Amino acid sequence: MVVTKGYQSGPLLLLSKYIKIRSETMSVAQIPGAQMEGGQIKAFLSTYNKLAEECFSDCVHDFTSRTISGAENTCAMNCTEKFLKTSQRIGIRFQEIHEMNQKNLVQQ
């Protein structure tokens, strides 16, 4: 994968930090052993593709220049941050619901 100069501190950096945080908070028991790598890669690519599509369509409107304007860069940074925080929050909530369901099953 080629990382161009302007993106090292932008949305791709935020995405890599998010993935690192998610991988540190997930326990091995939550991921099927044999499919761990394939599932993580698929989840990463899905998240990355959704992020790129949403933020590009929301932030890039001027195709007359090869450079990224300051407004486009700020929009992309904000979009990326919101997308990743929302995704993380949804994941945490699903985990909480799953834990509650497991407790209910054990109690029955």
Give the SSE layout:
Blueprint lengths: L10 H15 L10 H24 L10 H38 L1
Helix pairs in contact: 1-3, 2-3
How would you characterize this protein structure?
With 108 residues, the protein is an all-alpha fold. The chain has a single domain, classed as Mitochondrial import inner membrane translocase subunit tim13 like domains (Helix Hairpins, Orthogonal Bundle), CATH 1.10.287. The chain has helices at 11-25, 36-59, 70-107. The longest helix has 38 residues, at 70-107.
A few lines on this structure:
This protein is mainly alpha-helical and 108 residues long. The protein has helices at 11-25, 36-59, 70-107.
- From the N-terminal CA to the C-terminal CA, the straight-line distance is 50 Å
Helical residues, percent: over 70%
The total domain count is 1
- Per CATH, the superfamily is Mitochondrial import inner membrane translocase subunit tim13 like domains
Structural class: mainly alpha
Taking all Cα atoms into account, the compactness measure Rg is 18 Å
- Would you give the CATH topology? Helix Hairpins
Shape: elongated
Q: Tell me the major beta sheet.
A: none
Beta fraction:
under 5%
> At the first level of CATH, what is the class?
Mainly Alpha
CATH architecture: Orthogonal Bundle
Stretches where pLDDT falls below 50 for ≥5 residues? 1-8, 31-35
How many DSSP-defined strands? 0
> What is the arithmetic mean of pLDDT?
77
Q: Helix-strand pattern, N to C?
A: HHH
| Tally of alpha and pi helices | 3
